[in-house]
Every structure is written in structure tokens, then in C-alpha cells.
């Protein structure tokens, strides 16, 4: 098969880590007989420097014409003082909107080889966990009406959801669960919030009519925050709203202890998604070959799994990363403190390529 991929390296370490992931994509293509037509586009600070805006039309059009988008990271101190509507991060929000992406997927998985980096009690970490957080991305309180009273000493934000918005995210969660352990936990606060009551009602309706084979349970968000540190092995797919997902996905990724290894995806109605590491552009280490490429390489694996339905290819990348970590290879960010035998980003990429 032939796939068109739009690569958006962005700023800071973005170009280094995207180049690593492209090498991996090409190697997997050779091994499994796929052709990848990869075109690069500017977004973020580098686009501001070249075109005066964070998201040029060529980038939007190139991404819309692609089968999927691989993104590095955007931003950096250099662009911190420019007007808000021109900031590099605006490129990501605009791109998500243009591509119609409304669900964010964030896996939080304990890597057996890095279990000692996990911040949980050893007996809890030993049980392992592999959670996929499915977060609504374009609605809820972050996008609702907000304001202040005339005096400015009282403020409000509004949470609003339609059944349509909830259902399309729940559908993604159930579909993903079918590719995993077939268990969805819907996280809300229906004992207090009306939006949560609609959330629960809508998720259950869809479950009964189309996904009765998937196990579904409900959990209040306060309990979910607690269970993530008490017994994360309980979860398979966690489905939740924009704000709850924002908080819980950061908690879950920190719990793994290896934030530099975590990938993410944003999906919409079509198969085209946007795949990116959860970390930022790390300007402090840019250009020094110190960036860990694993989160971006695992984002490419997610692209195979969710946009192209190529599970064997995704497994191949994930297994290669696991083997390299199990063999004890580390980049500086995940090496033991004081260790001197760590790999540069390009060396880590070569180790992973050799395992594919
Ligand atoms: P950051 O994630 O870029 O960096 C935090 C720390 O982690 C730094 O010490 C950095 O060196 C390290 N780090 C991050 N990724 C690494 C990797 N792959 N390998 C090794 N070390 C890594 O977060 P920050 O410093 O808060 O933000 C820097 C810039 O990135 C800001 O301009 C911010 O707005 C932007 N940012 C962009 C995105 C995105 O594009 N999605 C996300 C978060 C932050």
C-alpha cells in the first residue's frame, strides 16, 4: 500500500525527533512492503519566522491532502513575547480544528524495563498497567462561555456538551477498546454535574445499541484520580471530558515516571489523525542530539494502528523499542543519575532500527 504522510517537525527538538520517526517509518515500509510518500511542512515558530504566521495555508492544505500527520513540537522562548493570536501553539489548535480532530488519545503504559522509574509503590508497579485515555478535545468548559462581572471580582466558566459530541467520542473509545482488552471506564461527575448526567446517559445508550460486547463501567472523576495511583491495572480505556481528561492524562503519564516515552494521537471522523509526542520542543537541548526520539517513534506506531489499521507494523515498532530498553540502552533523560554510558538521540534511533 502507498500512504501519504504530512510531517510537521516544528521547533526546538521537533526536527530531530521527527527525522528519527521518519527513518523508522521507512524501515517498517521496507520490511512490510509499504510505500510512504512523506512531505514536510512548517508550523509554529519556524513558520512565524518564514511567513509571519504560525500556520501557513500550504501546511493546512498539505495536512488535509495527507493520509495522516506526524508532528514534532512547536514553541520556544524566541516567540514568547509575540501577540497571543500569533503564538506558535495557535498552529496546533488551528490544525486540529481544520482537520476535524475531536478525540485525543494518550496511552500511559509502564515499560517493564523502566519499572524502577515508576513513582508508585513497587507492589503496585509490579502489577503493570497499560491505559488508553480517550479525552474529548474540542468542547466542554475550555470552550464554553466565560466572563467576569462589572466589578471584576466574580467570574464564571461554562461547561456545555451535546449528546452528539459525547457520542462521537464514546464511539472512538469503544472502537479502540475492541482493539485492546474490551473494557471502557467512563469517567464523569454525574452526582453533581448535569453535563455528566448527559454524558453517562449517552455513553450507556450507545453501549447498549452498538457495543454490548465491550465491558463498560462508570467512575466519578475524584475516584478515578485516586484509582490511578491505587490500582492503575484496573483500567484499559478511560473515556472522559476535555477538562477531566487534561488532568487525568497528565497524572497518568507522570505515574509512569517516563514522560519522554509517551506518544499521543488526535482523531476525528476520518481515518486521518495527528500523531505527536506529549512533550514539548525542549529548546534547552535542541540541536545537541540529546533528544529522546522514542515518544515520536511510538507516535508513528500509533499512526499505523489507528489510521492505517496496520497492527503488525505497530507491534513491530513497539517491540523494537521494548527490546532496546530491555537491553539496557538509555538516552540521557532516562538514564540513571550520574550514568555516563547513555546514547545520543541518533544512536538510540539506530538501535531501534536494528531491532525492526
Ligand atoms: P518540554 O516538554 O519541551 O521540556 C520539559 C523538559 O523535558 C526539558 O528539560 C526538556 O529538555 C525535557 N524533554 C522534553 N522532551 C524531551 C525529549 N524528547 N528528550 C529528552 N528530554 C526532553 O516542556 P517546556 O520546557 O515546558 O516547553 C518548551 C516549549 O515547548 C514551550 O515553548 C512550550 O510552549 C512548548 N510546548 C509545546 C508542546 C507541543 O508542541 N505539543 C507541548 C508542550 C510544550
Can you describe this structure in just a few lines?
With 356 residues, the protein is an alpha/beta fold. The protein is 41% helix and 19% strand. The chain has twelve helices and twelve strands.
Q: Fraction of residues in helices?
A: 40-55%
Q: What is the total domain count?
A: 2
What is the class of the largest domain in the CATH system?
Answer: Alpha Beta
* Biggest beta sheet summary: 10 strands, mixed
Total number of strands: 12
- CATH architectural designation of the largest domain: 3-Layer(aba) Sandwich
Low-confidence stretches: none
Mean pLDDT: 95
Order of strands in the sheet with most strands:
2-1-3-12-11-4-5-10-8-9
The arrangement of helices and strands along the chain is: EHEHHEHEHEEEHEHEHEHEEHHH
The unique ligands bound to this protein are:
nicotinamide-adenine-dinucleotide
- The 3D shape can be described as globular
CATH superfamily of the largest domain: Isopropylmalate Dehydrogenase
What fold name goes in the CATH topology slot of the largest domain? Answer: Isopropylmalate Dehydrogenase
Estimate what percentage of residues fall within beta strands.
15-25%
Q: In terms of structural class, how would the helical and strand content be classed? A: alpha/beta
Distance between the termini: 19 Å
What does the radius of gyration come to? 20 Å
Q: Total number of helical segments?
A: 12
Quickly list its features.
356 residues, Isopropylmalate Dehydrogenase, 12 strands, binds nicotinamide-adenine-dinucleotide
Write the layout of secondary structure elements.
Layout: E1 2-10, H1 14-32, E2 35-40, H2 45-51, H3 57-64, E3 68-73, H4 90-98, E4 101-109, H5 122-125, E5 130-136, E6 146-148, E7 155-157, H6 163-178, E8 183-188, H7 194-210, E9 215-220, H8 221-230, E10 237-240, H9 242-256, E11 263-268, E12 274-277, H10 294-306, H11 311-326, H12 345-355
Helix pairs in contact: 1-10, 1-12, 6-7, 8-9, 10-11, 11-12
Bound molecules: nicotinamide-adenine-dinucleotide (NAD).
Residues 13, 17, 73-76, 89, 92, 260, 276, 279-285, 291-292, 295, 333 line the site of nicotinamide-adenine-dinucleotide.
